[in-house]
Sequence to fold (185 residues):
Amino acid sequence: MPGLVVDATGNDLTYRIIGAAMRVHNRLGPGYKEEVYERALAAELETEGVPVETQYRVEVYDQGILVALFFLDLFVARTVVVEVKAFAHQLTNDERAQVINYLKATGAAVGLLFNFGRRRLEFPRIFPGAAATGDDLPQRLGRDNVKKRAVHEFGAGPPSTPDARRESGGGRAGPPSTNETRIRE
Fold:
């Protein structure tokens, strides 16, 4: 059985942050905007004596030119990136990729992604992984990729005639609709 994953904080700091987030979620519940949870979590951490910076500014430069500007929801002890969400849906790879970008930009070794918008708090720990190369960079996942993959894997689309659909095994089973006619031999 694999052992517990230990992060750069020895798990102590991330456990304290997760505990604070659970207390905030238990008190407030789902339904508020992201900013409410961000402020409540920052206040909870400050009450515990944990150093926290809100809306921490991170600049990314390429050859001396500013190419990106990020504002982290919380940067705890300048060690843990904390991203706060308030979605009714489950967290997606898009939100995870956002945290990975923040980890790369800050050099932090661990991030926490919280979703306060559901009945049960979601809180995955995010790690930056190996040094990013062109193939490793986080990419947006969404409907565009699904459509492209479907066309690539399955060709240009389904067979266009009812007979071709039946021969290929596609289409629906059962009698033809009023708009279809069967060819009898």
In short: Confidence is low (pLDDT under 50) at residues 131-161, 164-185. The chain has two domains: 12-138, 141-171.
